């Protein structure tokens, strides 16, 4: 299970097994999506599989995640998603009303994100060989001229911005899965981020890095960017927006909010000269009203993320071995 959690074990699996087997420079970039040069254009291409349990949760479903997850992976390259494929793997015995409800959610999410479900596939496996419904989506979109967004572009002096409160999706899943109550219902933040990225790029094309901190949360995303760029990240922990309900749930469950999954948030690395304008554009967008500066990129401790705590000390935000909450997307 740890190898599918987006942490250190996932990275080892990718670097030491898949990347050598496939062996090409395009895959070597290891971004949220691949950017493919074509005559007169650059195409962003991404694929993702969704095995979340339960299938329906406060604020969304596996259908919403399947669309938004792939749309967001494309957006992290600066691309506006245009077309998606959608494949279902169904377990024998799952009710058709369940499948229909998920299909309706996919259709509604695609319409909201402005993408077309252009092709798909359906397979059925025997009872006991699946978990109801799995969904795979792939997507393509065009990267605008002058946009070059990838983790290797982070440089010392970049300002680190998160688009809103973190940890909502992972805690929403856990509350339903374990039947826990935290005094208030926590809803997933799942949302398509393409229009938010467009608003940021309208201010400046010089956005260095974008990443949606899904599996492994914000802490994992920052570690991946630090490692890819060879720079350090200095985080100010008290500036990270953690909702009170998420903080309370994490305290009760023994989790660190920095590693809890999100499905409608992004983290951006932008030049200091552009940071104020980008932050204002984000806060003016419905999906970025809670945007906050949480740190900066530094020359010290290259490849590491170090956080200044609320007590004035520091701690290393390391790459987790596996995942705090499995099967959350």
From TrEMBL:
Gene3D superfamilies named among the record's database cross-references: PurM-like C-terminal domain, PurM-like, N-terminal domain
Position of the signal peptide: none
Family matches, as Pfam families: AIRS, AIRS_C
SUPFAM superfamilies in alphabetical order: PurM C-terminal domain-like, PurM N-terminal domain-like
InterPro entries (alphabetical): HypE, PurM-like_C_dom, PurM-like_C_sf, PurM-like_N, PurM-like_N_sf
Ranges where the PurM-like C-terminal domain occurs: 156-301
Taxonomic superkingdom: Bacteria
CDD domains: HypE
Family from the record: Belongs to the HypE family.
Protein name as annotated: Hydrogenase expression/formation protein HypE
Organism for this UniProt entry: Streptomyces chengmaiensis
């Amino acid at each position: 299970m740890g190898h599918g959690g987006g942490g250190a074990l996932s990275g080892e699996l990718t670097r030491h097994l898949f990347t050598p087997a496939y062996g090409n420079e395009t895959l070597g970039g290891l971004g949220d999506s691949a950017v493919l040069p074509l005559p007169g254009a650059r195409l962003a291409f991404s694929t993702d599989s969704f095995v979340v349990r339960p299938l329906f949760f406060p604020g969304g479903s596996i259908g919403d995640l399947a669309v938004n997850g792939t749309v967001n992976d494309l957006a992290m390259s600066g691309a506006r998603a245009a077309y998606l494929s959608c494949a279902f793997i169904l377990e024998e015995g799952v009710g058709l009303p369940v499948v229909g409800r998920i299909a309706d959610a996919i259709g509604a999410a695609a319409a909201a994100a402005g993408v077309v479900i252009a092709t798909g596939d359906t397979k059925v496996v025997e009872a006991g060989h699946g978990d109801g419904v799995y969904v795979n989506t792939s997507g393509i979109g065009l990267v605008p001229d002058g946009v070059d967004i990838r983790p290797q572009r982070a440089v010392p002096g970049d300002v680190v911005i998160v688009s809103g409160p973190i940890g909502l999706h992972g805690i929403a899943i856990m509350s339903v899965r374990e039947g826990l109550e935290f005094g208030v219902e926590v809803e997933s933040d799942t949302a398509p981020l393409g229009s938010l990225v467009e608003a940021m790029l309208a201010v400046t094309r010089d956005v260095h890095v974008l990443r949606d901190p899904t599996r492994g949360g914000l802490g994992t995303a920052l570690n991946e960017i630090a490692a890819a760029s060879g720079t350090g990240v200095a985080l100010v922990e008290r500036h990270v927006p953690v909702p009170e309900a998420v903080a309370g749930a994490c305290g009760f469950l023994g989790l660190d909010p920095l590693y809890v999954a999100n499905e409608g948030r992004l983290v951006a690395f932008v030049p200091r000269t552009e940071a104020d304008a980008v932050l204002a554009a984000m806060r003016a967008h419905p999906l970025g009203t809670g945007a906050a500066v949480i740190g900066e990129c530094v020359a010290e401790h290259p490849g590491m993320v170090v956080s200044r705590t609320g007590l004035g000390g520091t701690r290393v935000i390391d790459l987790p071995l596996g995942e705090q909450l499995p099967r959350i997307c």
